[in-house]
Amino acid sequence: MSGAVRQLRCCDGSACRNGGGAALRQALLAARRAAGLAEQELPIRPVGCLRLCGRGPLVAADGPGGIRLWGGVPPELASALLAAARGQRQGGPALAIPAPANPPHAGPASADPPLGGLSLGGPSLGGLPLGGPRLWGPAPGGSPQQPVAPADPTTPADPTTPPDPLAPHQLNPHHPFFALQRPVVLERCGLIDPDSLDDALDHGAYRQLQRCLHQLTPAAVRAEIRASGLRGRGGAGYPTGLKWDTVALQPPGPRQVVANGDEGDPGAFMDRTVMEGDPHRLLEGLAIAAYAVGAEHGFVYVRAEYPLAIERLRGALAAIAARGGLGPGLCGSPWPLRIALRVGAGAYVCGEETALLHSIEGGRGTPRPRPPYPAQRGLGGAPTLINNVETLAAVPAILREGGAWYGAIGDPGCPGSRGTKVFSLSGAVVHTGVVEVPLGLPLRTVVETMGGGVVGGEFLKAVQTGGPSGGCIPAALLDTPLDYEAMAGLGAILGSGGMVVLGPATAMPELARYFMGFCVQESCGQCLPCRAGTVQLAALLDRVIEGRGAPEDLERLEELAAMVRATSLCGLGQSAPNPLLSTLRHFRGEYLQACAAGIAGGLSGGPPG
Ligand SMILES: Cc1cc2nc3c(=O)[nH]c(=O)nc-3n(C[C@H](O)[C@H](O)[C@H](O)COP(=O)(O)O)c2cc1C
Ligand code: SF4
Ligand code: FES
Predict the structure, then answer these.
(1) Mutate to test the pocket of ligand 1, among 353, 358, 521 (most ligand atoms within 8 A of CB)
(2) What's the pLDDT score for residue 157?
(3) Ligand 1 in reach of 263 Cβ (< 6 A)
(4) β-sheet with 338-344: strand ranges across
(5) Which atom of ligand 3 is nearest to the CA of 13?
(6) What number of H helices and E strands is found in the chain?
(7) I need a labelling partner for 216 at 20 to 30 A (CA). Which of 119, 198, 487, 604 fits?
(8) Top mutation candidate among 262, 348, 349 for ligand 2, by most atoms within 8 Å of CB
(9) The pairing of beta strand 170-171 with beta strand 66-71
């Protein structure tokens, strides 16, 4: 494929930026200049997340032989990378620069089994001819079954050949981590330059909004969303079509729409990926939602800890304004939707919808009782549609392909969980990053087949899903499908998509204590059961962990947890006991062991605190 590579895509998501992505891109630009190539001969473009964040910075080369992928390449190897991407094995001094045994942010290389094996084919881009290269999938003419382990530079096949310094950085785009993904929400993320409206437009952005404004009634749009079976991706899984109908069917008057990009769960970075990688997708989904419910004002609420997402959204909104706005400028319609960005100060509770609305209104982010629900009385008293970022980002594809298409994605055995879901895979797992998969897939497929299991080949103890509102699924139940109902049945939740893999080193009572401490800190303090109950639960947990507890304390923990759950005002307090209760349910032995250790050492007894 010498000289025929079409472009290099350099991941410019925040994980890759933190791993030195900007320096690598600069070095590649310099290497291109040094090679005497013009920009149009080999475009080197920043793109959103390429998924395998733990191996960043990632670079993809698109050529006639398919996609080639590298991770963790240091800037010193930029000219070698450029040469390799162009199909030229570079000789000379550049090859003499040794690659670090453990490139920064690349994870422990020794623990990483060969990235090879199963491939179920390329991405679905929903049948849309995107005009650009496909992000993932087997290279045309290549074999998905080919052995694709990164070459071991210490044992070259031919001892006369100098070791290839890029070999440890080469990644296999056929690996299940990529091949089992089903990009719908993320279909453009990693393909387009997130800072370019033109690039987004070239890849289909705002076509569905245009279609809605010119061809579909709001009721027809809502019918499509209902038919899709889409449920809110913010954690509660409320049916999106039903929520849109509730807002639309309120008495006549103004309405508002809000995208919830607060994403405060520890270990969650799905919404960040969408906002950083394809901001126009969220804005189009929000605009379609506004049209469907009759709103002319919209807000995107993003936490201050997401500076790159904020920058990209600001840039996207400015680019739209420069073209004359969404309706008149981009869609040839007088429809006057205005979208504003609001930056939250980072309190976890501000993700709760009523607290978020207070925060937008300039007040303190404290939840209020529901009903009335925001769909009935929200911003300024107007009916307000509030949806999660990923929920809204799914909308353009649903409109393009039809609700029935989306509703057909997923395991038929999980009728309540349709479409795809984005998960952020982190913790003790080998391959960390972002995956978008059909719902209904067994958890095991994501964690073991795609994620590669636990680092160092250690046994997998559990998977924590749903952050502080979620629970732990023990290894024995790993075949549970990614299904709202099945996960809830285990005392865990599908949640917003945070998936933290736990190895043998994690002590479950301590994990429960971590999440309880998080809730103590993040409680807004407005209602007693949450304010004081979480503190008491944390103190009781300390007592058990420190060996001062007795088996009866576990029952006390359960009683108090049930009280906090039943009497707290908002979801934070209502779900704060979940990690504790799920670890008590599945790992009670560890709590009893802690108590027994204390009893054996004569430490038990006395009131907590
Ligand atoms: C403490 C707390 C934090 C929350 N944080 C978020 C969040 O960061 N993002 C989000 O979309 N939903 C969050 N939610 C859920 C929202 O209240 C709301 O249900 C959601 O934004 C609705 O959108 P959806 O129907 O599209 O999921 C949170 C709920 C609670 C109780
Ligand atoms: S449950 Fe907790 S976070 Fe929610 S209103 Fe009460 S004190 Fe505030
Ligand atoms: S941010 Fe670069 S791969 Fe995810």
Answers:
(1) 353
(2) 55
(3) yes
(4) 338-344, 297-303, 256-261, 384-388
(5) 1
(6) 22, 14
(7) 198
(8) 349
(9) antiparallel
Q: Which two tokens stand for residue 445?
A: 């497929």
Residue ranges per structural domain of the chain: 7-179, 197-407, 420-502, 508-600
Q: Does domain 197-407 have CATH number 3.30.70.1450?
A: no
What is the structure's pLDDT at 143?
39
Encoded tokens for 98: 């040794």
The confidence score (pLDDT) of residue 161 equals 76
Mean pLDDT, consecutive 10-residue stretches, the chain (609 aa), reads: 78 97 98 96 97 97 92 97 81 27 30 29 30 34 36 52 90 96 98 98 98 98 98 96 98 97 94 98 98 97 97 98 96 96 94 97 94 97 98 98 98 97 98 98 98 96 95 96 95 92 97 97 97 98 95 97 98 97 96 86 44
Residues 6 or more apart whose CB falls under 8 angstroms from that of 251 comprise: none
* HEC profile of 183-242: CCCCCCCCCCCCCCHHHHHHCCCCHHHHHHHHHCCHHHHHHHHHHHCCECCCCCCCEHHH
- 434 CB-near residues (< 8 Å, 6+ apart): 49, 51, 53, 186, 269, 270, 273, 422, 423, 424, 425
Q: What's the rounded Cα separation, in Å, for the pair 379 and 255?
A: 8
For the CA of 19, the nearest ligand: 3
C-alpha span between 162 and 156 (Å, rounded): 8
**DSSP per position, 459-492:** PP-EEEESGGG-EEEEGGGTT-BS-HHHHHHTT-
For ligand 3, what atom is nearest to the CA of residue 55? 3
pLDDT in tens, 463-509: 999 999 999 999 999 999 999 999 999 988 998 999 999 999 999 99
CATH class of 420-502: alpha beta
Asked whether the beta carbons of 493 and 419 are under 8 A apart, the reply is no
Q: 508-600 is classed in which CATH architecture?
A: Up-down Bundle (1.20)
Q: How far is CA 490 from the centre of its chain?
A: 22
Task: Using the mean position of ligand 3's atoms as its centre, give its distance from the Cα of residue 12 in Å.
Answer: 7
pLDDT given for residue 89 in this prediction:
55
Tell the CATH topology of 7-179: Glutaredoxin (3.40.30)
Dihedral of alpha carbons 143, 147, 152, 156, sign = negative
pLDDT given at position 129: 28
Q: Which residues pair with 67 in a beta bridge?
A: 62
Q: How far apart are CA 556 and CA 465, in angstroms?
A: 25
Proximal ligand: closest to the CA of 388: 1
Ligand 1 atom with least separation from CA of 355: 17
Report pTM: 0.90
Please name which ligand lies nearest the alpha carbon of 522. Answer: 2
Sequence-ordered list of residues with C-beta below 8 angstroms from that of 315, at least 6 positions apart, any chain: 195, 279
Amino acid code (one letter) for 125: L
CA distance to 13, 17, 26, 27, 170, per residue, from 46 (Å): 9, 11, 11, 13, 19
Residue 62's nearest CA partner among 44, 40, 79 is 44
CA distance 579 to 386: 26
